[in-house]
Amino acid sequence: MELTPQLVSLQLVTGVALGAVYALLAIGLSLIFGMLGVVNFAHGALFMVGAFLGMYFLGLTGNFWFSLVLTPLAVGAIGLVIERLLVRPLYGRGIDYPLLLTFGLSWVLIEAMRVAFGIEGIPSSTPPALRGSVDLGVGYFPLYRLFLIGATAAIVTLLWLFIEKTRYGLIIRAGSRDPEIVRVLGIDISRVWLAVFGIGCAIAGLSGVLAAPTRAVNPEMGIPVLAESFVVTVVGGMGSLPGAVVAGLLVGIVFALTSLVAPDLAELSIFVLMALVLLIRPYGLFGKAGYMG
Amino acid sequence: MIDFIARHRVASVLAFLLVFPLVMPYEALAINILIFGLFAVGFNLLFGYTGLLSFGHAAFLGIGSYLTGIAIVHFALPWWLAIAIGVAAAGLAGLGIGFLAIRTRGIYFAMVTLALGQIVYYAFYKAERWTGGENGLRGVSVPVLDLFGLKLDFLDPITKYYVILAFVAAALWFVSRVLDSPFGAVIESIRENEKRAAACGYDVARAKLLVFVLSAAICGLAGTLRALHLSIVPIDSLHYLLSGQAVMMCLLGGMGTFFGPFVGAAVFLYLEDVVTTLTRHWMAVVGGVFIAFVLFFPKGIWGTLIDRLARARVAPRASPLRGAKRKSS
Fold this sequence. Notes:
Chain A is mainly alpha-helical. Chain A has eleven helices and two strands, in the order H-H-H-H-E-E-H-H-H-H-H-H-H. In chain B, strand 2 and strand 3 form a beta hairpin. The chains are: A mainly alpha, B mainly alpha.
């Protein structure tokens, strides 16, 4: 296979589409961490639950847009229950416990989906309106992947506006700086934490339903995704929104281009990228050293 | 009794493990518990005693397994040399991964070790010519162990158990010595307060790296023994889910206790063994039990037990020496 400029640029767009999902995953992870100091090891499992529910709602209603709204709400609701019943009792008990708990939870979620949908998984389909491909000038590109890029850009923009420009975003930002002062100002911080955990999980579910048409939907699909979203978070820097976006795209592009020149090394490449970043900037490209302590 | 176990912790654990196969339903399960117990002991050195939560320790178990397997399958080396190679390779990998991982702290450490462990997974997965790729490495069979003319039938499960126990005993003795040494005090001080340990003049980074390597080598030994036991190396040996199992075993048994990892391994594997006969969905049950332990018994079974016993004894007369350093049992 010859490496023509057309092929490389097409693969570049593929990388951006892949990176869009990575960026969303890392944002969800980062949001929860930045606010609660919890690394959610069930993030990959929630992504998987999102993919299952997304395809289930799509089959039920026949409307992808409906499923795109319903799924994050459902996964977000699961997140609220997780925070309230399981994670909240662990605050103040050291950073490792919520991590361990969510790891155990990921096993339960995987088995729950096996029970609900069978161990084989369910077929995924691209919504009819988004099938086909578009001429980008350098070649034809699947419409759905372009939609993926656009949808992610829209979600990231909305989230940024929410965090930077609204009153609630102000509370979230203040709460991640100094929860004590926020509480003194008369805001029930535990409700903010609950909401942020729910939003983070909802984003995981949303990335699951968005990614579902591009990959096989089975109960194990979240397992490698968790490792990959850690790579993105470490590369970008924990708790940084721009870091998550840039690192997500970078990881997606590195993966796509490596799979073009050396398909066998594609999975390996992103982990090597992470190792390189660790050598040069241990706290990530956009990270603050403060989060490491 | 607690004091006796604490004072003679290696002997106590070995005494228990000597009679252990007699109470197990079948020997293969006992051997599995022995090997995973050792895996958890190696992991515990880092997690329980130094306070570093690694999610990449399957890499060391797997490297131990694979290198032993490759030495036997591809080079037809004698079993003892294959074991030495496996342990050395795991230690070396520990040096490489540890060097990168200790640059990060806190929550990053778990994520970074997980991701670095996955490098090893994919590398071995793709090196199909040497590792068998997805199918695993087959034919790691050592039917007879030749020990200075003494021939041990490795196919007999009871003999196999006691041969493996000999290695586990040596490793346990070694771990106990490490914990008793001044270095052992240093790593525990890092767990309690890293900044203060550094302020006291200890080279924290070097101590962390050294304990990481030791822990990796012990997990590697568990891996080599597992390869000989199974006579196949499954590719799952390297996956981070297996690292997660070490974490679970360690916490179920009691992190930072000497005997806890074996209790955890026994409970985990016994539970898996029993539950799989009832339902395919054993992960849900084990995961649920684990969640309950994190929430209600974070000290684990053994940790909670010795805590209760110690408290019951100390309570009547509050001794001023209560805070003095005791050996962990």
